[in-house]
Amino acid sequence: MANQKEQVEGRSETRKNIMRRLMQVTMSIILIALFLFVSAGRIDWIYAWIYIALSVLVILINASLFTPELISERGRKKENVEKWDKIISGLIILPLLAIYLVSGLDIRFGWSPELALWIHIIGLIFFLLGNALVSWAMMSNVYFSTAVRIQYDRGHTVCHEGPYRYVRHPGYLGIIIFYLFTPLILGSVWALIPASLTVILFIVRTIFEDRTLKSKLEGYHDYVGKVKYRLIPGVW
Fold first, then answer.
1. Helix (H/G/I), strand (E/B), else coil: 155
2. Within-domain flag for 113
3. What is the pLDDT of residues 16-26, one digit of tens each?
4. 48 pLDDT tier (thresholds 50, 70, 90)
């Protein structure tokens, strides 16, 4: 009976976490839309609508591919999160939102020259490639989380599968790619400034996370010996 009760409680907790994650991603899309359209002062902005539509499409595809356990982890109220990660994650939000704010202001005031169609298309391609890499990393690593923490409660182990065979932090590489190319989709050269700051902060987060895993996650040192690069094979 006790075991059955624990299973029921576990399923209930998983459902709550999934619903929490659904609310989180829904609010993030709404927030992005508000930043874009309010700062632009208009809603007839085709590239903003394309960006939002693609973002929603990525979320729907991921929801169909990811396991309930993985989605639940991303919606879970996190424990034992590294203190440095709370600081860096808080800092990342500022330039990240600034990407959309600056893009909208750029459209309103015409700071950037009108970009050629092929530049927007390149932005779209790399946005999708970056998201695909993040999704691949998440499907390969059941411990993929929104916060840096050793998941003792879930028997945290090192992932060697999928893109983790080539770089140690493929999820961050994917995130860096799609945020760096977001300004090109939206048609704002000036938004590359906050996008670059976002990239720098994710690189810093990569450094700190790598150090944390080396010191706290069993087997990670051996993994580092086999997969030598953090983000870019042959470079770093």
1. coil
2. yes
3. 888 888 898 99
4. very high
CB 128 within 8 A of CB 187: no
Q: Which two tokens stand for residue 131?
A: 């998201």
Which tens digits make up the pLDDT trace of 118-158? 999 999 999 999 999 999 999 999 888 888 888 887 788 99
Domains contained in the chain, number: 1
Q: Is the pLDDT of residue 98 over 90?
A: yes
Domain that holds residue 190: 2-226
Per DSSP, the residues of 104-129 read HHHHHHT-SPPPPHHHHHHHHHHHHH
Contacts of 205 (CB under 8 A, 6+ apart): 85, 88, 89, 92, 148, 172
Token readout for 186 is: 């939206």
- The pLDDT of residue 6 is 52
How many residues are listed for the chain in this entry? Answer: 236
Report whether 228 contacts 108 (CB < 8 A): no
In a domain, 176, yes or no: yes
Model pLDDT, residue 3:
57
CATH number at residue 189: 1.20.120.1630
Asked whether the beta carbons of 131 and 56 are under 8 A apart, the reply is no
Nearest to 19 by CA among 87, 76, 89: 76
